[in-house]
Amino acid sequence: MQTSEKKIIPYRHDGDFYFSYGVKAFKEKRFDRAEKWFNKALDIKPTSALYLSQLSVLYTEMGEYHRANDLLQKVIDNHGHTYADCFYLLANNFAHLGLFDEAKKHANHYLEHNSDHEFRDEVLELLEMLNQLSKDEAKEDDLELDDMDELIIYQETAFYHLEHEEWDEALEVLEEMMTFYPEYMSAKHEYAFALFQHGDKEEAMTLEEAWFDQDPTSLHSRLNLTYFYYATGKNTGFQEMLPSLFNVYPTYEPQKLKLAVTLARVGQFEQALKRFLGINQVYVSNYLSYYYWFSHVLAHNQQHELSERIWGQGVKKHPVLDSFK
């Protein structure tokens, strides 16, 4: 008597199946799960430009820039210049690592090899920022090491007073910084902001407008003036300045935070939320303003549960924050 045997046909999911789960986990910021699914997809298609690139974006989001760059280099090794967007991603990662020459090189590679220039404006902005950073770095190299140590102490002290809204103390430190380090522009912009918050609004605006006239590309000036005009009811100046912030995408987390906070201060809560969601919390956890304003922005966007969670994280890390509510 013959018995019929059922044939079992093994079924194996293809790479796109795992990749789709990875994308879903990534959007939910469940990075461990996303990494697992992307690697499963790569087990099936080890040279897939899409899979490699997406995993590199995940590593960038996690602050693991070297690992991200290794994956992007694999795409270039396997596919040549076909996926020129990799050069744009590499440029951003090298900028985060402080390797400005490498960042410039890959930014220029992107402009050379990408015919549609999807990220052309972003790359040009990155190159402009890198050139400015190189100039600033060259100026800083002229300082003696002892002076650099002293400058860092001033920076940390001013940062503490600004974050704790201790305007008198902040102004005193910043005035000294401006005296001893007149080329250090950030101190001047922070001084104008502290002066404004202290109540000397007209003087703060006059100073910032003068610095803006000297350097109309200064993001710090644009952020300060947008807020100053909004807070003093100078609607014409505010409406002229505000749109320029919507097209700015800083590379460094503290700059991203300053932009997000400014948008929140002037009531642009939807735009502010997009910017806060693009900030890697690891690099701004020492900022009280991150937790304070992110929580407020989430509440304004009806995301109350997440707002409370962010606020709770902030109070746990910075107990003084509870007195700001």
Shape label: globular
For the record, what is the CATH homologous superfamily label of the largest domain? Tetratricopeptide repeat domain
First-to-last CA distance = 83 Å
Radius of gyration: 24 Å
Mean pLDDT over all positions: 86
Number of separate strands: 0
Unreliable stretches covering 5 or more consecutive residues: 1-12
Question: What is the CATH third-level topology name of the largest domain?
Answer: Serine Threonine Protein Phosphatase 5, Tetratricopeptide repeat
Proportion of residues in extended strands: under 5%
CATH architectural designation of the largest domain: Alpha Horseshoe
Give me the strand/helix succession.
Answer: HHHHHHHHHHHHHHHHH
- Describe the main β-sheet briefly: none
For the record, the CATH class of the largest domain is Mainly Alpha
Secondary structure category:
mainly alpha
Helical percentage: over 70%
Question: How many domains is the backbone divided into?
Answer: 2
The number of distinct helices, counting runs of at least 4 residues, comes to 17
3D structure, described in words:
With 325 residues, this protein is mainly alpha-helical. It folds into 2 domains: 15-140, Serine Threonine Protein Phosphatase 5, Tetratricopeptide repeat (Alpha Horseshoe); 144-324, Tetratricopeptide repeat domain (Serine Threonine Protein Phosphatase 5, Tetratricopeptide repeat). Helix content is 73%, strand content 0%. The chain has helices at 15-27, 31-44, 49-61, 65-79, 85-96, 100-113, 120-141, 145-163, 167-180, 185-198, 201-214, 219-231, 235-246, 253-265, 269-277, 288-300, 304-317. Helix 6 packs antiparallel against helix 7.
